[in-house]
Specification:
- The chain is of the alpha+beta class and 305 residues long.
- Helix content is 33%, strand content 24%.
- It has two domains: 8-51 and 75-111 and 203-297, FAD/NAD(P)-binding domain, CATH 3.50.50.60; 119-201, D-Amino Acid Oxidase, Chain A, domain 2.
- It has ten helices and 13 strands.
- Helix 7 (231-248) packs antiparallel against helix 8.
- The longest helix has 26 residues, at 252-277.
- The structure holds flavin-adenine dinucleotide.
- Flavin-adenine dinucleotide binds at residues 10-13, 15, 20-25, 106-108, 121, 157, 159, 198, 201, 218-220, 226, 229-233, 235.
Length: 305
């Protein structure tokens, strides 16, 4: 709309709603939202601010202080903000898809086919003392993130193998309490939202290559392990680039070149780290790797675009 094109939005599901997501936004979100004139509206939602990161592997932990703050905002609030702003700027939300008019496809990630070693994600909100850190607890093939969001709430969100979930009878409270450091961390908190789950998750090792008739954006481009907390920033960034390219009639190749230079390297590292983390010795090894290095190699280059 800012580029002068009429915009129609179609999504078959209800927006906003609670979604399985860590709701953690890395500092890259700021320039992405500033370029869209959305930064003040974002701050008006009173997102939680985080100054540091803590990775916990059994009895060991690694800490890193962010150079700039990271943020926590529920998907319910963020998705409502984005939808509301799009409509306020003239986008028309349509109830029926109009055949043959899709320029931008942002349908999110693909689901995995049935098979072994399937991964599922889960999340709930808790109330209680709030910290200024994003924490990740690694155990038994799972990792669980704990970070503040708006309104004094804490998001608890994890990913792990179906087999491990089965061992706990798909009881997420039992699962998070099975790890001593995580159970200690959550003890002063009370759960406020029923656990939500999603999956099976399919990690993709390559960027999806351009279909001729559409610009792919967000997870439709590639879904990588979300522990880097950049999925939402990349989705908003790529969606805005796709919108501009579609409105200006730019060749799709030019768009995908920008996408590749922004995220391809980061996605490759995420894939490598995900493979490494699935090995049994990895958590011990990872506790010796500086957290700031792990953080820096997984940063997308999306600020200056
Ligand atoms: C467990 C978990 C934790 C995560 N934690 C974080 C985190 O802390 N920080 C972070 O930045 N990222 C996180 N992510 C990743 C983040 O959720 C995604 O990267 C982000 O939501 C991608 O946005 P998107 O718009 O591409 O897709 P989505 O948010 O999935 O939205 C896709 C939309 O498309 C709609 N849709 C589906 N099919 C169609 C269709 N055929 N036509 C039209 N519409 C369709 C869906 O209804 C949906 O509303 C996490 C993901 C998971 C699974």
């Amino acid at each position: 709309m800012q580029c002068g094109a009429a915009v129609r939005l179609w999504d078959p599901s209800r927006v906003p709603k609670h979604k399985v997501c860590g709701e953690f936004l890395t500092p890259e979100i700021r320039p992405v939202l500033e370029r869209l004139n959305l930064w003040d509206a974002f701050l008006a939602q009173e997102p939680a601010r985080m100054e540091r990161m803590r990775l916990v592997f059994g009895n060991r932990s690694a800490n890193n202080r962010f150079a700039e703050p990271a943020y926590g905002l529920s998907r319910y609030r963020l998705d409502a903000l984005l939808r509301g702003e799009a409509e306020a700027r003239g986008a028309q939300v349509i109830a029926e898809r109009v055949p043959g008019t899709v320029d931008i496809t942002a349908h999110g990630r693909q689901f995995a086919a049935p098979g072994k070693d399937r991964l599922f994600g889960f999340k709930a909100h808790f109330r209680g003392p709030v910290s200024d850190a994003v924490e990740l607890y690694f155990f038994d093939g799972f990792y669980v993130g704990v970070n503040p969001i708006e309104g004094g709430l804490t998001n608890v969100c994890g990913i792990g193998p179906e087999e491990g979930l089965r061992r706990h009878g798909f009881d997420y409270d039992a699962l998070v309490n099975s790890n001593r450091p995580l159970s200690d961390r959550l003890r002063p908190l009370q759960r406020e939202l029923n656990w939500l789950s999603t999956g099976p998750l399919l990690y993709q090792t390559r960027l999806q290559y351009p279909p001729l008739d559409t610009f792919l954006a967000g997870d439709a481009l590639q879904f990588v392990d979300p522990f880097t907390g950049t999925g939402m920033a990349i989705a908003i960034w790529s969606g805005s680039l796709a919108g501009k390219a579609a409105a200006e009639g730019l060749p799709k190749d030019d768009y995908y070149t920008q996408i590749r230079s922004g995220v391809e390297k980061q996605y490759r590292w995420c894939g490598r780290l995900r493979s490494a983390l699935s090995m049994s010795f990895a958590p011990n090894l990872a506790s010796y790797i500086p957290a700031h290095w792990l953080y820096s190699i997984t940063r997308p280059k999306i600020e200056s675009r």
